[in-house]
Batch of 2 targets.
Target 1
Amino acid sequence: MSHTEQDPCAAVPALVQHRWLQQLVGEWTFEGQADMGPGQPAVKHAGQQSVRSLGELWVLCESQGSMPDGSRAHMLITLGYDPQKSAFTGTFVGSMMTHLWHYAGALDAAEKVLTLDTEGPSFSGDGTLVRYQDIITLQGPDVYELASQVLQADGSWKRFMTATYRRTR
């Protein structure tokens, strides 16, 4: 192995981006609403989230909440930072869907907003994949917002879900 190659099994030191993610560690409750489509009223949702560290480099955000039909939903988000890609990376999976979402994102200059780009099934149900963003906005040490939006055909973003998370411990 040359001196410029890194041992893939060697521990990697945490960077400022990894430490930023550690702010999310804790127990949270959330309340929000989701747009259910044209001509339908927004649906409120609520639940709990537990965020834990996987070492210093990753956080695992496990949530439980209610679906519009009253059934329970379970979600898991993994988030880390890949210095080789200069991007935040991660995944999202939910008990209500079969698609595994892959994130690549960036933090804004003020270090308050993490925008995660991803691709997933279109709401049209036609089998096409479209671009989405999940956006985490820190509003303080004990409050953050998660918003989801989809790229429209005209190039604009349409926000379809928001939730406010409040730390309980």
Target 2
Amino acid sequence: MPRIALATYDPGAEPSKDTDLPVLVRALTDAGAEAEARYWDDPAVDWGGYDLVVIRSTWDYSWRTAEFTAWVERVGAATRLANPAPVVRWNADKRYLGQLAAAGVPTVPTRYLAPGEPAVLPDGHEFVIKPVSGAGARFAARYTPAEHGTAARQLARMHAEGLTAMLQPYLPAIDVTGERALQFFGGRLLHASRKGAVLAPGTPYDADKVAHPRLVRWRPTDAELAVAEKALAAVPGGPELLYARVDLVDGDDGEPRLMELELVEPNLFLSLHPDSLPHVARAVLAAAEDPA
């Protein structure tokens, strides 16, 4: 009976936002595993006592990146971790987008502004500012060229907290065709979803946002699949990935562009795709029982 831990965050007094977690624990238990959800930052957990630790919903890690990456290294040294520690370390900093673009993956054009660097903001189009380590649209906002003053104040706040900022053009197609999330699990396409635009004009960067508005099932196009597969093939080292989510938007030419490659703790959207649950459970069990 394999022992499997699904690492999640501690929601405190609030209900957990990961509604898929108890469903997955139950499916793994029914399939013959000893599975349980554990808080990633609980010092009492003996992670080495598990055959597999799956980073499932550590959705507060971007506030505590150094602490989280240190935990990832410890767990990866103690037992099998999915995804592997080098992958998580690389993917936790969105400067990976520059590496993927250099490898020929069609991506949303991105500049990076580290603390102390001059902030030259676009004059001819809307743009987005967000941190290189973030989740759920935290510290993300959309601006017009007339809002340079507000954008500069956001950059100053982020830099004061030691955060490197990403600067991207806002692609108008997002307001029409939304953002598509292609989910891979156990080495194959699991399912796909589409959501509406997250960043509404005028929403403050430090306001809470709905991370996945108007989520619906989606059938990916051949062009979307091609970009997703190219992005996954470009991950350094060619690692074996248990899970991956490829987030795509349309560029000005109507072709898909990589918005984000989520290899750390992607929402699986199993409530929208309940038929995917058996495959997820089988893939997790196979990873736990793999003798490698």
